[in-house]
Fold this protein.
Amino acid sequence: MAKNRRSTKSKARGTARALMARGVPGVGRSPGKRSEQVERYKQLAQEVGPKRPLARNVLAAFVVGGAICALGQGVLNYLLARGLPKEEGIGLASAALVVIAALLTGIGVYDVVGEFGGMGSAIPITGFANSIVSPALEFKREGYVLGVGARLFTVAGPVIVWGLVVSILVGAVRLLLGAP
Amino acid sequence: MRPAIAGQRRIGNQTVLFPTRPAIISAASVVGPKEGQGPLAQEFDVIKPDTHFGQATWEHAETTMMREAAATAAGKCGLELQSLDLMLAGDLLNQTLASSFAARQIYIPFIGLYGACSTMAESMALASVFVDGGYAQRVLATVSSHHDSAERQYRYPTEFGAQRVPTSQWTVTGAGAAIVAAGGDGPAITAATIGKVVDFGIKDSNDMGSAMAPAAAQTIVQHFQDTGLPANHYDLIVTGDLAEVGNKILVKLLSEAGLNLGNRLDDCGLMIFDRQAQNVKAGGSGCGCSAVVFCGHLMRRLLAGEIERLLLVCTGALLSPTSYQQGDTIPGIAHAVAVEANASGATGAGGGGGGRI
């Protein structure tokens, strides 16, 4: 596309000209030209803006996510060593991680961990705990009904809803494939 | 820079002049702890150690902060808040709650404003209109933003562990208040350019610098077209909260429009934090950003004579949680006010005669 090959400078020039010519391309006014201007400006913004530090983010997510999982494994190993059956041990270890994450959210640490670790701290069960506890804390000020009650799942709600939908779909496919 | 018709105060397409030179007789800034650790820490009037400001909710914390800024500004020029004619205030909360709640206690005639982060310039421009037109003697212009009240309204609960992207900005916890008066000592507001809503199709609410930069460019270019002033007229042109990304784009847009401002151009969102050390990504944002940088840092420099002529261009992203959830683009706006160090009433105000507009 010729548009993409144009230099940052010419994109800036185009945008500046559009600004000068008519103030701004009004919404709905000459739609063809507006879409061109929008496209050109979007590219300019992307070229100028900082890139996401992908390598750093992946590494941080690996370290933080790995540390959380290692902690869970440590708790599980301890429980198994104390003679708990594996099924119960897994449940209890998960519960322990939830409690720890809830506590860290309450004392204002988990959001700092989340800022550093990104998805590494969001995906494990601790991230789920954080997504429930943080709205509970935040919206307690609006009361237990309209605050905590109504908004507890503002962050986790979509994950639960679409997680359920996907699990039902996967279950249906599995059933159709004749799995036991 | 004269209006086409004698006595008319409007010139060009978007600019109004204030020939009576309303003076900023006092200004004050109140900030939270993070701003108090930034590079401008010495220049704020009050730095609070805790973002709660002794209140149970973030909204009340913001209200308290605005009231304190207003009271400090009044105290600095020896006035009672109740002796002011009008309060023009705005913030980022739904229904501009912090302003209305602050006005409930200050109890003077009040007009609530919303211009997103452009509100400091908006309130000072309107205050100047009232004072210059003779409709008020002394007007309080005050705005605030609070990081946590903004987070919970626009993004996530404050303790939610989300990772912020490099283009995102950190909402400043701070309130600025300026008292604009007819006569009196202090920097004079000589003109204002009222911005248009500009939208170049940016949708990412984590990239508001890009969304606002065209509006800033439009207002600045129009200001120079309307006034006919040379590009080097102002010692400093400072935008509100374009931060790193928006500032870079603005430099490019202005340069293509024939305005090469070099180090005469700066941005409050870049000045208020140490971006690396304080991990604020692209920089500061919020009404409070330009408010405290102007009422603290820039006012001090104007009073000390380090800046003779300043153009404050506060930039606002006019989005709402509803609009971005519905996939709408982010409209931007920028209002400019021209401030000169020497008020007309001041004795021995020589020097800047050539710059008088």
About this structure: The longest strand of chain B covers residues 23-31. Chain B has nine helices and 15 strands. The radius of gyration of chain B is 19 Å. Confidence is low (pLDDT under 50) at residues 343-357 of chain B.
